[in-house]
UniProtKB/TrEMBL annotation:
<feature type="domain" description="PDZ">
    <location>
        <begin position="99"/>
        <end position="174"/>
    </location>
</feature>
<dbReference type="InterPro" id="IPR036034">
    <property type="entry name" value="PDZ_sf"/>
</dbReference>
<protein>
    <submittedName>
        <fullName>Peptidase S41</fullName>
    </submittedName>
</protein>
<keyword id="KW-0645">Protease</keyword>
<dbReference type="InterPro" id="IPR029045">
    <property type="entry name" value="ClpP/crotonase-like_dom_sf"/>
</dbReference>
<dbReference type="GO" id="GO:0030288">
    <property type="term" value="C:outer membrane-bounded periplasmic space"/>
</dbReference>
<dbReference type="InterPro" id="IPR005151">
    <property type="entry name" value="Tail-specific_protease"/>
</dbReference>
<keyword id="KW-0378">Hydrolase</keyword>
<dbReference type="GO" id="GO:0007165">
    <property type="term" value="P:signal transduction"/>
</dbReference>
<dbReference type="GO" id="GO:0008236">
    <property type="term" value="F:serine-type peptidase activity"/>
</dbReference>
<dbReference type="GO" id="GO:0004175">
    <property type="term" value="F:endopeptidase activity"/>
</dbReference>
<dbReference type="InterPro" id="IPR001478">
    <property type="entry name" value="PDZ"/>
</dbReference>
<keyword id="KW-0720">Serine protease</keyword>
<dbReference type="GO" id="GO:0006508">
    <property type="term" value="P:proteolysis"/>
</dbReference>
<feature type="domain" description="Tail specific protease">
    <location>
        <begin position="175"/>
        <end position="356"/>
    </location>
</feature>
<dbReference type="Pfam" id="PF13180">
    <property type="entry name" value="PDZ_2"/>
</dbReference>
<dbReference type="Pfam" id="PF03572">
    <property type="entry name" value="Peptidase_S41"/>
</dbReference>
């Protein structure tokens, strides 16, 4: 598996980045004029920047100096206090709001053209008749093809004001070129990837992040599963890097009895803010299983900690990331912002799950990589815990603070790293690109299939899998998956299902024979 080892740091870096970047966001407000009052130390910095601006021998962009200064200041505070440049803030805000204004398509830049992978169900493009496989050539007078334009980010050209209209010029196989007018609308960014029944009594919901819309999505999914007969529930928070705290609290409230503590925060002055469950819970009786792994962070850990500390359910998987700091966002007036750590959060038993960061950011992030080296991801006995950080739940269960949520039931990571290789192929777009091109060879047939028909009729054979490996080699990526052809075929079929039917179809296929889900199925039958 030379390939997976080569790309492992990149893959992990992406996952850690998600966990580090996403934090709770609260409105920044401070009525005190003292916050921005005159301060000789701040004036010293202003004078230095002005001096450089007017007198330095070479022309220099003082804005860049300011950004470097801000970044250096925050780096010396903690790993999660960050500066967000103006060019990044809009996209980040959209992601955490849970929607954006656009035409509602996911696309693949195939041969330097916007090629529609699928349309958002109920979105503007679907209503206007856009279909998977269509090529969008122009938006009003803007040409939307060519290598340079693809690199410049074509998605922004399809965005605009709410209810504004855009005329698209579209090419479709069998129909040719035609024009269609699309009225831009709110396009959801899903945070609930899948919700379905694992068996006749066990429901499953996968949440990929905690955005403003997450609780509403989750509640809809939960209610639908209850209507289908779910008596027990699996909440999958693997690779969920966190986000807003409020949706995590509301989700936990659905499972906890009235007035029990969900979590509390404490700032540097010792002020404590408690968060309790209300009388709104709709699933306070059935069994609950929470799936976590080394990339589950922040709000994910708040949810898992609340369930674990209240003896409400079983945590299954591997030790979570270990982010127990709360950030507040403040705009800096030029389109940029900072997220500053303002407090720590604690689980109901009083434990902080924040891992140490006193030795600097480099060692902090390398700790994540150390879990691979010390065997923790393969063996629960390798997890290092301190007796001084031992806590006891009301039911007498021992839990530990000081660095993530330790699961009640440990499930090891695949030591062959096959999963990481396949995940990288998904994240890099290689697998999606190959699947798109294959679907495009017979687009009309695939577009007419229902999901049930797809699952019944479409089988990935050896030729299809070998052609994918050849496709990757031609693009400079050598993959060694000998003896793991079945896993490759499963990922290819899941990717096809995702492009045709969405993330729920992907998860339903990829979760077959999943180690953590199999463990939960076994536990649910034993208890």
């Amino acid at each position: 598996m030379g390939y997976s080892k080569k790309y492992l740091p990149l893959f992990l870096g992406l996952a850690v980045g998600a966990g580090v970047f996403l934090g709770s966001k609260l409105d920044f407000s401070n009525p005190s004029a003292k916050l921005f009052s005159y301060n000789p130390k701040k004036e010293k910095l202003n004078r230095l920047i002005d001096y450089i601006d007017y007198e330095y021998v070479d022309e220099i962009n003082t804005d860049s100096i300011v950004e470097v200064t801000v970044n250096r200041i925050l780096e010396n505070l903690d790993p999660h206090s960050i500066y967000i440049p103006s060019e990044e803030l809009e996209g980040i805000t959209e992601n955490m709001q849970g929607d954006f204004i656009g035409i509602g398509v996911s696309y693949y830049p195939y041969r330097d053209t916007i090629s529609v992978i699928n349309t958002i169900k109920g979105g503007p493009s679907e209503k206007s008749g856009i279909k998977a496989g269509d090529r969008i050539l122009m938006a009003d007078s803007d040409t939307l093809y060519g290598e340079r334009l693809i690199r410049d980010g074509l998605a922004n050209r399809l965005k605009g004001e709410l209810n504004s209209q855009v005329q698209l010029r579209v090419y479709r196989k069998g129909k040719g070129i035609f024009d269609v007018v699309v009225k831009r609308g709110r396009v959801p960014i899903q945070s609930v990837d899948a919700a379905y029944m694992l068996d006749d009594k066990l429901g499953y919901v996968k949440v990929n992040r905690f955005a403003e819309t997450t609780y509403k999505e989750f509640k809809t999914a939960l209610d639908e599963l209850i209507d289908k007969g779910a008596e027990n529930m699996v909440i999958d928070l693997r690779d969920n890097g966190g986000g807003f705290i409020a949706p995590a609290l509301k989700m936990a409230d659905e499972f906890l009895k009235d007035d029990v503590l969900i979590m509390f925060t404490k700032n540097k002055k010792g002020a404590i803010e408690n968060n309790f469950a209300t009388n709104k819970g709709s699933f306070e009786q059935g069994k609950v299983y929470v799936l976590i792994n080394e990339n589950s962070a922040s709000a994910s850990e708040i949810f898992a900690g609340a369930i674990q500390d209240n003896d409400r359910g079983t945590i299954v998987g591997r030790r979570s990331y270990g982010k127990g700091l709360v950030q507040r966002e403040m705009a800096l007036g030029d389109g940029s912002a900072i997220r500053l750590t303002i407090s720590r959060y604690y689980t109901p038993t009083g434990r902080s799950i924040q891992k140490p960061y006193a030795n600097g950011n480099k060692e902090y992030f390398n700790e994540y990589m150390e879990r691979y080296k010390n065997g923790e991801l393969q063996n629960a006995d390798s997890i290092q815990v301190a007796d001084s950080l031992k806590f006891k739940t009301p039911g007498g269960k021992i839990v530990y603070g000081g660095g993530g949520i330790i699961p009640d039931i440990f499930v090891s990571k695949d030591t062959t790293r096959v999963g990481e290789t396949l995940d990288y192929m998904l994240r890099s777009g290689r697998m999606g690109g190959y699947v798109f091109e294959e679907l495009d060879k017979n687009r009309a047939y695939y577009n007419d299939l229902s999901e049930d028909e797809f699952n019944e009729k479409i089988n990935i054979d050896d030729t299809f899998a070998q052609d994918f490996l050849k496709y990757s080699r031609q693009r400079g990526i050598e993959i060694e998956l000998k003896n793991y052809e079945d896993q490759l075929k499963k990922y290819l079929k899941a990717t096809m299902a995702q492009q045709l039917f969405g993330t729920g179809a992907f998860e339903r296929i990829i979760n077959k024979d999943d180690a953590m889900i199999n463990k939960v199925l076994s536990l649910s039958k034993e208890e």
